[in-house]
């Protein structure tokens, strides 16, 4: 346990930062309401330490694109609220000549020591440079960050096509299509392997049902393509069904990935908790983020049995916005709030 953060600050400090947000010089309605929601819906997260000397060390990796700007917003909020967190900051990138194995090992060592991290998107180059696994994938594998959780929640005051949405996407992110197993079997023919194992499928299914139970959710839906990938997704679906039998109070359904995409656009209210393999989760995370305002307003987190990494829900570096002061920090601020909740 990381201890307890005590009683919440009064709204004076919250309003102080809310007003200082004008320093960003970009004050559109979506961002205004996003920050308003963060500061007034999550006041209990901004709290003083239980003891004067209680400080939590957290690894921070700003990443590429607007990541450093988003982390600056987090640090300003924490400073204004006197939040008892000390960041160990590391700059790691595969596109900015900061991609040495030594730097990666330093980041991993810090994450293993602190057990909690905040991370921006580390951009993965398109071109093949001799190694298939990028830094993002290496971090997830080395820390066994198997469960990615994205809570898609409508922001009060920010009207979208579907309002009052509240659903959770849980993605297995250590195997599946993103296993870095590709090769050219003969010239002009590439084989890309998708790995699905019983052990990891049952683990992510159990995580989803445990999450639903802990959070008072009523339904878990497994997303798959078992009608075509009968063995791989068939195994995933079988594992979800087996685990579902252990949770009789939670309703269980399954849905094919293509139909799931359509249903999310037409009637997302039918979903509660969705659990799925790696690639499908990557797509659904971004689709669902678009339902409530885009990548700038949805937080995410990744868990192993020992570690927790907090980041944006829709992973996008938004490189074209660098230096323009238009990046919405809400997703990263909400992620920071979730991190403090985790530290309690």
From TrEMBL:
InterPro entries: IsoCit/isopropylmalate_DH_CS, Isocitrate_DH_NAD, IsoPropMal-DH-like_dom. Belongs to the isocitrate and isopropylmalate dehydrogenases family. Pfam families: Iso_dh. PROSITE patterns: IDH_IMDH. SMART domains: Iso_dh. GO terms for cellular component: mitochondrion. It is found in: Mitochondrion. Residues 57-344 form the Isopropylmalate dehydrogenase-like domain. The keyword ATP-binding does not apply. NCBIfam families: mito_nad_idh (TIGR00175). GO terms for biological process: isocitrate metabolic process; tricarboxylic acid cycle. Plays a structural role to facilitate the assembly and ensure the full activity of the enzyme catalyzing the decarboxylation of isocitrate (ICT) into alpha-ketoglutarate. The heterodimer composed of the alpha (IDH3A) and beta (IDH3B) subunits and the heterodimer composed of the alpha (IDH3A) and gamma (IDH3G) subunits, have considerable basal activity but the full activity of the heterotetramer (containing two subunits of IDH3A, one of IDH3B and one of IDH3G) requires the assembly and cooperative function of both heterodimers. The gene is idh3b. SUPFAM superfamilies: Isocitrate/Isopropylmalate dehydrogenase-like. GO terms for molecular function: magnesium ion binding; NAD binding; oxidoreductase activity, acting on the CH-OH group of donors, NAD or NADP as acceptor. This is Isocitrate dehydrogenase [NAD] subunit, mitochondrial. Keywords: Mitochondrion, Transit peptide, Tricarboxylic acid cycle. Heterooligomer of subunits alpha (IDH3A), beta (IDH3B), and gamma (IDH3G) in the apparent ratio of 2:1:1. The heterodimer containing one IDH3A and one IDH3B subunit and the heterodimer containing one IDH3A and one IDH3G subunit assemble into a heterotetramer (which contains two subunits of IDH3A, one of IDH3B and one of IDH3G) and further into the heterooctamer.
């Amino acid at each position: 346990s990381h201890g307890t953060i005590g009683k919440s600050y009064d709204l004076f400090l919250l309003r102080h930062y809310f007003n200082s947000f004008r320093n960003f010089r970009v004050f559109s309605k979506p961002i205004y309401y996003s920050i308003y929601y963060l500061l007034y819906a999550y006041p209990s997260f901004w709290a003083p330490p239980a003891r004067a000397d209680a400080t939590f060390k957290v690894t921070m990796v700003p990443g590429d694109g607007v990541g450093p700007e988003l982390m600056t917003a987090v640090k300003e909020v924490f400073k204004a609220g006197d939040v008892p967190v000390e960041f160990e900051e590391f700059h790691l990138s595969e596109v900015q000549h900061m991609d040495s194995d030594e730097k990666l090992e330093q980041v991993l060592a810090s994450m293993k020591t602190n057990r909690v991290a905040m991370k921006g998107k580390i951009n993965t180059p398109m071109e093949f440079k001799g190694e298939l696994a990028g830094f993002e994938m290496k971090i997830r594998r080395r820390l066994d960050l198997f469960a990615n959780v994205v809570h898609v929640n409508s922001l009060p005051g920010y009207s979208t096509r579907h309002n009052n949405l509240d659903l959770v996407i849980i993605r297995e992110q250590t195997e599946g299509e993103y296993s870095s197993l590709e090769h050219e079997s003969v010239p002009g023919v590439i084989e890309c392997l998708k790995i699905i194992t019983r052990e990891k499928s049952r683990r992510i299914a159990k995580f989803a049902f445990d999450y639903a139970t802990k959070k008072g959710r009523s339904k878990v839906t497994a997303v798959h393509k078992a009608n075509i990938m009968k063995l791989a997704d068939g195994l995933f679906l079988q594992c979800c069904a087996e685990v579902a039998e252990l949770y009789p109070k939670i309703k269980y359904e399954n849905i094919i990935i293509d139909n799931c995409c359509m249903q999310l656009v037409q009637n997302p209210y039918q979903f509660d908790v969705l659990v799925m393999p790696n690639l499908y989760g990557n797509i659904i995370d971004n689709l669902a983020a678009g339902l409530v305002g885009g990548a700038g307003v949805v937080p995410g987190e990744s868990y192993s049995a020992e570690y927790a990494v907090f980041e944006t829900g829709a992973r996008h570096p938004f490189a074209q916005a660098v230096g323009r002061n238009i990046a919405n920090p809400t997703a990263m601020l909400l992620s920071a709030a979730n991190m403090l909740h985790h530290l309690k």
